Amino acid sequence: MTETRLPARLANHPTVRAAHARRAALRDTPGAPAVVDAGWLREIALRAGADDVAAVPIDRPELAAEREHVERALSGTRSLVSLVVRMNRDNVRSPERSVANQEFHHSGELVNTAARRTVRALQDTGFRAVNPSATFPMEMDRYPGRIWVVAHKTVAVAAGLGAIGIHRNVIHPRFGNFVLLATLLVGAPVSEYGSPIDYNPCLECKLCVAACPVGAIDKDGGFDFLTCFTHNYREFMGGFTDWAETVADSTDGADFRHRVSDAENASMWQSLSFRANYKAAYCMAVCPAGEDVVDPYLADRQGFMAQVLRPLQDKVEPLYVTAGSPAAEHARRRFPHKQIRQVGDAGRSRRRIDPDGPPEPDEPPKPDER
Ligand code: B12
Ligand code: SF4
Contact at 8 Å (CB) between 243 and 370? Predict the structure, then answer.
């Protein structure tokens, strides 16, 4: 590091003297780090709560789209470190939404904590590092554009911690898709990097396709972002805006209650007061892939479906779809016992700024269709 000449007043300040002393000591320590030791990093991350970890250099071709975003969060990023935290499978599989949501929220906290603790250890060893949020909060001033700082799935795949299944979640070779991910941005090289795995743990069983209540997952691996966003994220940004507009558009309390049920309002209150709750995640719940996960499926496939898939398919619940969408048709055909709720288009603000996006729907949904 090049030293700039400091004015005497600053050079004699106790903080500056202490910093100089510490730097000198570090210089004199044999093997003072210029490179993060991969073994040390792994141990720190596992002790911090991660279940698996691997690093990847920022100049890998598959990370090209991440570079400008990562650079904005930590200029001079050299390596990305992917952390994996396991979720408890039967919690994610439970048809009771409060059980699954609790698991997602708690695992989100664990992965954020593991990431933050690892960053603290890196900092204290002399490295620059940041841990962008694993889930929310994100950069909402960019909404409806890319609001996430770094794409954790892309990094995990590049680092060799799994591959993307038909449902577009990362499947870890051992833990299956029952994992949440975080990424550390580090301003130094790491001594050893991971590489993509040479097979896909996805079994192509298509249970995820059968489980999604709004047909967001195509059996060939296509994923309809807006369909998932409209239903699963009903109580997140897009659905909330639609809900607020419904409040504004209602003529009085009775009209509002006609449009939105008490249970839906209570659910929105819960999401706003505690944390936004997902409506599904059934694709993840039913996925049998992964060495630690697959046994019950292999032992009795019909039994697995009866125990895991069917309760989610049978659950009576509202399904949020836009009028005339393929999701509305899918829901009506496949899940006639569920309540179809036609809502405003959660993705419309994105379309307003996207000239290539589909046109606005001709008419907003009528109250009696909701
Ligand atoms: C955006 C996002 C979503 C979007 C889009 C999902 C997607 N397939 O990308 C929505 C809201 C639908 C979503 C849903 C879910 N998500 Co999400 N999500 C993210 C986020 C913020 C970025 C994803 C990403 O990298 N996309 C880019 C590329 C890599 O993804 P892609 O699949 O190739 O491309 C899709 C997107 O670009 C999307 N898209 C296209 N245009 C637009 C425009 C906008 C504005 C947005 C937001 C997205 C979008 O559609 C593409 C087609 O698939 C990450 C957190 C993070 N910071 O990384 C979590 C993350 C991917 N989500 C996660 C989870 C758990 C879920 C849910 C299970 C949540 C739940 N509990 O229900 C569902 C699963 C849905 C599914 N089958 O994918 C986990 C996945 C863990 C794993 N094992 O892979 C992550 C990594 C969060 C975490 N910290 O662990 N998610
Ligand atoms: S449910 Fe089956 S098809 Fe879908 S991602 Fe998992 S293993 Fe692949």
Answer: no
